């Protein structure tokens, strides 16, 4: 019994009506996640986890190509470790879950479930690093981390999430800073070229930097509802953790010195960005590079032609998959072609091929793009090249569209009134002058609800005065409401 | 300053002197792990973690080829969940760590850090499975798990360890049992063909089965000290968890039925087996398929020939890596060739190539096998084929040697005295008749220190009487001292 062609579309609230509901509708309808019976936790269902696996594979390759190796450190961190870096403990203490009993006994020292691993890794590095010959140490870890957040949202902010955290140690500040920049560039390359999401690169203000860092660099992305999302961060930790954990080395000049460390991470929240940057009222839209299925073949036409059409469709599937294109076919007879069209659009598959008897006889096949909805008949003898070319086009077009949206929604504010007006009525990123005083930054946060996203490395313009106090601006800063 | 050629060998206790110390010496000297500052936890250092990554890749491919998909479920499990399967709670309760506080507040319900995920996955499956159309559910999870063990040993038994746990749900018992068997066969194939470790396949006795399972299948391996190690398990859980968590489906006959579930897992303890099956007094010995580096090239000869030799060695490296062989070169001048020979033998690299000026002029290169120590000069124009062939030979030879050792140390006991004598004086696996009574099994455990490993699917012989009580034997059982 074919299901109704349109039934599921009703399940997705239009973005214009309620973006938050649209988001939840889409991730549930596309079967990416489910709520777990533990506060603020989700289950990553196979279709959601497959997206994370694709990210992992891409990132892991980039990390290894730049000389990093994977390792694994314990989930539990003794309470005393958090006391060794003052800012760090203040930043993370409110969010920690504590193991107080184990194996039927009360523990002498409470164990935190890791929110991030600078402390325990710092403790180990102090033992591994003795001489300049042991440097640099370039290690990455794929792991689960926990932060007991008050307000949670699937993928974007959950009590437990998955991420990678890189932790490196260097002989000099210059080297460590170069590493911090290198990793930010790797994240930028990954997010822009693999996920087709344009980013705003810059440095966090002191109020927004990582607890314990000297400086934090970030890439920020703009969601379709005009809110920003921090996509990845890379921290130069200076000698803060080195001093807290006594990570010293004997340098070539025979002096004992503290190392300079970095850390950098990207998490499953990037999946939220992927959905909110590209999705539309029809559902998910996946850039070809990350799409687990890039092409879906759907045989159509009357029952009497079925066998001939399916045989032909199977042949096309074989030809396409020989080019290492991820292609599938849905020849299920329990659902109608119309239902399938909607279903796979909703799941964000970049290309649909409709194979029917008439096109078949004409030596062609109908191809539909998810990004534009364009439909075209293509010659079967050019099938592989056309599909290959189109996947490249779609990837580029999705990036271009997102880039255009980000540009149209990046504005410059000469005054506080202007800043406030844009944030309240248009959202998006707003560049404003800042004197460097925390008070002015906090004023903006309190009065407009926007936070500083970062200080761009290459600002579109250099603003002269702080929009709050009117003194000379030290920096031009991106502000936005954010997730 | 070249380090002394032999210095490190002193750091490894001979196996014959003290096998346990040998094991710890090797894993520390080969830099596979370090002790963590949390009781019973270790750090997987890059060289150790790389072995696990290789296992993951191999297993993940096999799981996906058989239709399984990855997902991720929460780390924390509410206390009440453990009450829903009686045997399960009894089995795991003594080993659980409990989170009792989070985000600055005492939790209303304690959360266990997962020791295994049957309960929370059962809870989710109850919501995902409604109809026979939803079956089978074939999901796997790569995760960290925690069991607060009293006695720990690196890799073999640690408070936190890494593993995969497959969890499937089926409409019928037959299907679920077929899945359980299929996964045991996949583990067998992986352990025997990839890790070159022969295994004893069979079913666990009721006393040794997984807490909550109807039946547990296992593969067991024999370490060089004569002790057994459980390498992987696959459980048919019947309807136990389905009933505990109300996982029901509407079948084709319009009846509501409980599903049949399975679970199966292999963990980082397999790395302990890898080391203890193949290692020797010179250190690690890695089968070529898992070795992160399969061939190590070491340029030798006088300083004045150095440049010419290194250039030539680089050329050989390029040629070999074109065949997708994992090859590295150590041209470091701070350490002597002799030191390098020992170092890479200790690290278990299957093949060493010594490249010197005289061999070079003769159109040959010296090749040394880690498994046999054999040294041979080979013609450079046959280099790639020879290395490729040899890697295959080494893999097979390591399996053959381990298989021979396992066979020589598998004995049949006709009486309790004989069983006890073998266990105390020779160790290894001992097959003995068993009446099926738990009391007889416990008697053997208490009096000999050996536990039942499994009831082989294809026993070498069918024994007639129980070695403890003398009644008719229902099964022939493998007994061994074990890790
Ligand atoms: Zn100001
Ligand atoms: Zn008996």
From TrEMBL, chains A, B:
The keyword Cytoplasm is assigned to this record: yes
List the Pfam families.
HGTP_anticodon, ProRS-C_1, tRNA-synt_2b
Q: Which Gene3D superfamilies match?
A: Anticodon-binding domain, Bira Bifunctional Protein, Domain 2, C-terminal domain of ProRS
Which reaction is catalysed here? tRNA(Pro) + L-proline + ATP = L-prolyl-tRNA(Pro) + AMP + diphosphate
What's the EC number here?
A: 6.1.1.15
Give the record's GO biological process terms.
prolyl-tRNA aminoacylation
Please state where this protein is localized.
Answer: Cytoplasm
Please classify the protein's predominant subcellular localization into one broad category: cytoplasm
**InterPro entries xrefs:** aa-tRNA-synt_IIb, aa-tRNA-synth_II, aa-tRNA-synth_II/BPL/LPL, Anticodon-bd, Anticodon-bd_dom_sf, Pro-tRNA-ligase_IIa, Pro-tRNA-ligase_IIa_arc-type, Pro-tRNA_ligase_II_C
Keywords, in A-Z order: Aminoacyl-tRNA synthetase, ATP-binding, Cytoplasm, Ligase, Nucleotide-binding, Protein biosynthesis
Using the record's annotation, list all stretches that form the Aminoacyl-transfer RNA synthetases class-II family profile domain. 39-287
Membrane spanning stretches: none
Gene Ontology terms, cellular component aspect? Answer: aminoacyl-tRNA synthetase multienzyme complex; cytoplasm
- What are the recorded GO MF terms, alphabetically? ATP binding; catalytic activity, acting on a protein; proline-tRNA ligase activity; transferase activity
Q: What is known of its domains?
A: Consists of three domains: the N-terminal catalytic domain, the anticodon-binding domain and the C-terminal extension.
The family annotation for this protein states: Belongs to the class-II aminoacyl-tRNA synthetase family. ProS type 3 subfamily.
Subunit structure and binding partners: Homodimer.
HAMAP family for this protein: Pro_tRNA_synth_type3
Function description:
Catalyzes the attachment of proline to tRNA(Pro) in a two-step reaction: proline is first activated by ATP to form Pro-AMP and then transferred to the acceptor end of tRNA(Pro).
Q: What is this protein called?
A: Proline--tRNA ligase
Q: What is the gene name?
A: proS
């Amino acid at each position: 019994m074919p299901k109704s062609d349109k039934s599921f579309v009703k399940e997705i609230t239009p973005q214009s009506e309620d973006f938050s509901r649209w988001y939840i509708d889409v991730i549930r309808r596309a079967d990416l996640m489910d709520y777990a019976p533990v506060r603020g936790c989700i289950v990553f269902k196979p279709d959601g986890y497959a997206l994370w696996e694709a990210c992992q594979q891409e990132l892991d390759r980039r990390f290894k190509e730049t000389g990093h190796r994977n390792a694994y450190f314990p989930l539990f961190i003794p309470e005393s470790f958090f006391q060794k870096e003052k800012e760090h403990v203040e930043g993370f203490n409110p969010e920690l879950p504590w193991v107080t009993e184990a194996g039927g006994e009360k523990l002498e020292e409470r164990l935190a479930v890791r929110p991030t691993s600078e402390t325990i890794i710092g403790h180990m590095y102090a033992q591994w690093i003795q001489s300049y010959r042991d440097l640099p140490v370039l290690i990455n870890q794929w792991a689960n981390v926990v932060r007991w957040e008050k307000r949670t949202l699937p993928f974007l902010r959950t009590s437990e999430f998955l991420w990678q955290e890189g932790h490196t140690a260097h002989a000099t500040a210059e080297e460590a800073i170069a590493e911090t920049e290198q990793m930010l560039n790797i994240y930028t390359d990954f997010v822009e070229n693999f996920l087709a999401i344009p980013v705003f690169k810059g440095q966090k203000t002191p109020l927004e930097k990582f607890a314990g860092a000297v400086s934090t660099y970030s890439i920020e992305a703009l969601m379709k509802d005009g809110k920003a999302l921090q996509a990845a961060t890379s921290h130069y930790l200076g000698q803060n953790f080195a001093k807290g954990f006594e990570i010293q080395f004997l340098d070539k000049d025979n002096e004992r010195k503290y190392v300079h460390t970095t850390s950098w991470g990207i998490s499953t929240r990037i999946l939220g960005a992927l959905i909110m940057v590209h999705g539309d009222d029809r559902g998910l839209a996946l850039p070809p590079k990350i799409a687990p299925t890039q092409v879906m073949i759907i045989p159509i036409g009357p029952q009497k032609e079925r066998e001939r059409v399916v045989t032909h469709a199977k042949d096309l599937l074989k030809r396409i998959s020989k080019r290492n294109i991820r292609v599938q076919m849905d020849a299920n007879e329990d659902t109608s072609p119309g239902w399938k069209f909607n279903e796979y659009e909703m799941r964000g598959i970049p290309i649909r091929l409709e194979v029917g008897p008439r096109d078949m006889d004409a030596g062609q096949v109908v191809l539909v793009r998810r990004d534009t909805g364009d439909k075209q008949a293509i010659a079967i003898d050019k099938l592989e090249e056309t599909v290959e070319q189109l996947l490249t086009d779609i990837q580029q077009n999705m990036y271009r569209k997102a880039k255009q949206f980000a540009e149209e929604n990046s504005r410059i504010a000469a005054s506080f009134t202007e800043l406030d007006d844009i944030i309240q009525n248009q959202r998006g990123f707003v560049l404003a002058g800042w004197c460097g005083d925390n008070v002015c930054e906090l004023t903006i946060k309190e009065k407009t609800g926007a936070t500083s996203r970062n200080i761009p490395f290459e600002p579109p313009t250099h603003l002269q005065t702080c929009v709050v106090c009117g003194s000379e601006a030290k920096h031009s800063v991106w502000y936005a409401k954010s997730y």
